[in-house]
Amino acid sequence: MTSQQLVICYMQRTFQTQEYVSSVMQMNPDVLAIAARMDELRKAGQLLGPLHGISFTVKDNIATKDSMETTADSWALLGSVVPRDAFVVARLRAAGAVLFGKATMSEWADMRSTGYSEGYSPRGGQARSPYNLTLNPFGSSSGSAIGVAANAIAFSLGTETDGSVISPAHRNAVVGFKPTVGLASRDGVIPECEHQDTVGTFGRIVRDAVYALYAIYGVDPRDNYTDAQRGKTPLSGGQLIDLIKTAGARVVNYTVITDYDNIVEKRGWDWDWRAKELNRPYESEYTVVKVDFYNNIKKYLSELQKTDIRSLEDIIRFNYENDGTEGGHPYGQNYTDAGSGRTSYHGHPAFRTGQNGFLMSNATQGSQDETYWRALEFMQRTTRGGIDAALTHDGTRLSGLLVPPSVGQTYQVAAQAGYPMVTITAGVDPVSGMPFGLGIMQTAFAEEELVRWASAIEDLQLTSGTELKRTRPKWYRYLEKPLPIRRES
């Protein structure tokens, strides 16, 4: 099969599934020409690597200097021109991979609002899991994971600040690899929080996600966090745990992350709970994220051409002025026009709280005051110390921490620490039909250890003769009725 033929296969698959799952924001109009060039190189005996001629997508907050838009799925940045390819995109192009298009995402990577529909954006609509069109697909890298799950693309890039790779990966039965902050450059990525942002990979199997990861890492002078990787880079549910034990691995039950009760909210994911419930903003992840976003987004916008959007204030104003599509106001509240006296409802149902996330970030004005630095120190000290301590049990250094990726408090610890985590498929909920995964956590720049164990566990799944394999989504005919609607228990 040629690269062009592979592209056509993915085009046909996208046309089949897009109406239902909405995984692709924009298809690259030059994709067939790029594939043709890769075919010519292959004929000439010039292979650029294992990804030569393989199609991929990137989340719409990753810049591509081509015929496509980079907008974080917001109308606000439509028509803007990026200065260059994101570092990770340039690396994949150099490796011979074929950029198929942009994947849909939760608008602005979930930063804009605290009450929103995951996987929704004004430009891309509602992304849906192929396993259950009625349930939350998780995000914010929703389209990246969904496209791989629907077999509409070979692999995809997403981004994560707190759960945005791990969550949609396990929710859509694909492998998601979130590397250490600083392994993959964030240059050209619409930012959220420089201390936690990272670019991750999605694949149907570990090998696919790892090939992509190995292609994108590297030191980049435009992202000083990548200097930390020098000398540390990679060299090139219960039944599942029982299977691992049977194969000869020692599974410790259980090791403890120190300070866990002080790091996360036991009732569910909440990155501001210590500020809201304990009145301790100096111990809140959100304290850091709000300030970083205000500063980081201004820096990113300063390099764009052909746009009037230069700051968070500009984005907020745009959302108010385009309330019907962008939902600048909280949904359902009525507003009276001072001039005409007319009262009307404002907002968008996908954004129940409007853009309150943006407003809270804007209120900080990017001030890195004492509270900010205390919060950053608390967050990194407790999470990094907790994971590192848990990796030693009775004097023995462990190869990884097996964790449930479906629990927000799990990936939240890895996200705050800036440490790597991978999730692989483990099964499907018999009630909802939604997949769930098995996560593995490690310390900074221990990606090679994660690759080794994730690959070994996946090999066990495929060769064990059990049902512990990746379950494919069930597709129904176009006019078939009634479609089953299953809800989570």
Strand composition percent:
5-15%
Give the terminus-to-terminus CA distance: 44 Å
Please, what is the average pLDDT? 89
Unreliable parts: none
Overall geometry? globular
Percent helix, as a range, is: 25-40%
**CATH H-level name of the domain at 3-249 and 401-463... which superfamily?**
Amidase signature (AS) domain
Number of helices, where a helix is a run of at least 4 consecutive DSSP H or I residues = 16
What does the radius of gyration come to? 22 Å
What is the CATH fold-level name of the domain at 3-249 and 401-463? Amidase signature (AS) enzymes
Task: Determine and state the CATH class of the domain at 3-249 and 401-463.
Answer: Alpha Beta
Largest sheet: 9 strands, mixed
* Strand order across the largest sheet: 1-3-2-6-8-7-14-15-13
Protein name: Amidase signature domain-containing protein
Domain Amidase: 9-228
Organism: Colletotrichum destructivum
Describe this structure in words.
It is a single chain. The chain is of the alpha+beta class and 489 residues long. The protein has a domain at 3-249 and 401-463: Amidase signature (AS) domain (Amidase signature (AS) enzymes, Alpha-Beta Complex). Helices cover 35% and strands 13% of the residues. It has 16 helices and 15 strands. The chain has helices spanning 3-21, 31-43, 87-94, 142-149, 166-171, 206-216, 238-246, 260-263, 273-276, 285-301, 312-321, 323-326, 356-364, 370-390, 408-417, 447-463, and strands at 24-27, 55-59, 98-103, 120-121, 125-126, 155-160, 175-178, 198-203, 334-336, 343-345, 392-393, 396-397, 401-403, 421-428, 435-441. Strands 1-3-2-6-8-7-14-15-13 form a nine-stranded mixed sheet, with helices on both faces. Strand 9 (334-336) and strand 10 (343-345) form a beta hairpin. Helix 10 (285-301) packs across helix 14 (370-390) and helix 14 (370-390) crosses helix 15 (408-417). The longest helix is centred in the last third of the chain and has 21 residues, at 370-390. The chain is globular, with a radius of gyration of 22 Å. The model has no long low-confidence stretch (mean pLDDT 89). It comes from Colletotrichum destructivum. Residues 9-228 form the Amidase domain. This is Amidase signature domain-containing protein. InterPro entries: Amidase_dom, AS_sf.
